[in-house]
Amino acid sequence: MTAQRRPGMDHEHHDWSPISTRGVLRWPNNARVALCVIVTLEHMEWEPPEGSFSTDVVGGLGIRPFPDYARYSHRDYGHRVGIFRVLDTLERHGIKPTVAMDAQTAEEYPFLVKHCMERGCEIIGHGISASQMISSNMPVEEEADYIKKAVDALKKATGSAPQGWLGPEYGESAHTPQLLAQAGIKYLCDWANDEQPYPMHSPSGEMFALPSMLELDDVHALWTRRVTVQRYGLLLKEGFDAMYRDGEQNGRVLVINIHPWLMGQPFRIGFLDDALGHMVRNQGVWAASGSEIIDWYRQNRPTD
Amino acid sequence: MVSTSNRVDYSPIIDRPKLEWPNGARVALWIAPNVEHYEYLPVQDGPRNPWPRTPYPDVQQYTYRDYGNRVGFWRMLEVLDKHKIRCCVSLNMAVLEHFPEIAKAMVDRDWDFMSHGIYNTRYLYSYTEEQEREFYRDNIETLRRHTGKQLKGMLGPAISGTPATPDLMAEAGLIYHTDWMHDDQPVPINVKSGKLISVPYSIELNDSPLFRLNYEGDYFADIVKAQFDQLYKEGAESSRVMCIALHPFLIGQPHRIKYLDEMLTYIMSHDGVWQTTADEIAEYYIENYYDEAVAHAQKFKS
Lengths: 304, 302
Known about the structure:
Chain A is an alpha/beta fold. Chain A has a single domain, classed as Glycoside hydrolase/deacetylase (TIM Barrel). Helices cover 39% and strands 12% of the residues of chain A. In chain A, helix 5 (176-182) links the parallel strand 4 and strand 5 (187-188). Chain A is globular, with a radius of gyration of 19 Å. Chain B has a single domain (22-300), classed as TIM Barrel (Alpha-Beta Barrel), CATH 3.20.20. Chain B contains eleven helices and nine strands. In chain B, helix 1 (59-82) packs parallel to helix 9. Chain B is globular, with a radius of gyration of 19 Å. Classes of the chains: A alpha/beta (304), B alpha/beta (302). Chains A and B meet through helix 1, helix 2, helix 3 and helix 9 of A and helix 7 of B.
């Protein structure tokens, strides 16, 4: 359906709201920036099922013919090695990780599920696998089933239902927020269009967007846009500095999505350490998990 | 529901038997120059087109790579010699037949030889099992004839393979496969017969993906040093492998060569570095750690 030419959004998922006209959002202890680091722990399949769709082309030497040992194994590096460097780094800076975990990781890597839980990570939904995105190619019943499988896998592995969701490759159909709300999801990180949480319209339970900063996603910066790792470290710091300045007037949320197979490589991890150290040195930073931020927002958001 | 290769048992690096290299070295450093020949008029017999830019020949791309054998290799060699590096070459075996001076230079330096296929324009994707068996016989025989050495490992030609590759490598008597980018230590690979491991190679510390994109020599040196620092620190607890992958047509360019010197000067100034080859890493690991690693991985089965 093409857009109707009238004020407001061209969809029904949320209202139009320029940040310049909003009421003031205050974080706990009057923090200027709520910092959330998502650690995306996703499994790339050796052979994705027939008919599955994904725009995931990163890792290895790009897309090569089957069998692609290089790409498959490069991605697996995150589960074997990179994740521990990333979690150690977050722990050093007192940042509670928000781990976006797909169903295949939850089912096939019980060590990692236990490890993340023991370290106090919040675990949120991340679909079935890196090689199976949600898209409008899926009939709506199939999408509902996909979401249910992903949520059920986390419930079974962790003992509790995930509160949040980040789709593989930020993938959605036009039904996704509704279907996620029906599946009990309370907040959604696919929408990269703001620096504050915002409410989404949902007939089936409260739903909020917790927007990610797409340009500060390590895959987007380091792989897709090929910025150097030094420059990426600077982007994180300079981006934070500007939000910290702006957050004095009206609180901001900085959501950074990190992939252990990429940022957890030995030569990269130090730049994440340096950038996060720069951020948390500031008094007015509240490092929190996704649901901590959304819970606060739900109770304290400005009414105007 | 899950699709995995079933070749590798899960084993998180933080919960493994301690790995210790000879003389307590923290990092096993192996340098892998990819000495290659790309055919002028290749035959496309599978899903990948060797020269996708133009109908064959693609003289621009062909000569860009051939420059590596005529000029770049020799410039690279001067720097490697300066640092007394003994390489494990990733070799297109036909180089031994086409370019005897290069063969002699490698033999004279007692390098180890890992197969990188016969030509870099002949991929394994479409091979039948029998064709692939013949491919290993050819590799083994060609290497023995020209160097007297026994072939021990392979980086697939242009990093290509078939689902059966690890089984057929092990059947042919090879002991390591470097197409796996999944770890900072060797890892057992499940095969039908024999023993096969992965030895960490790198597509990150590798001039080919770097210089075809938006990076240059200074960045290569920077990330190599950063990689070394991190692995050296971690290697105090349990030893690590670090590979630097080179291509003479890229690193041997006049505007890049000083960065190879810079990175090797930095690394080789440290104690606790085992400058070695993938052959030696594989033999040492299989002799001392393979059985323990296989047994240990059972505890992580879901």
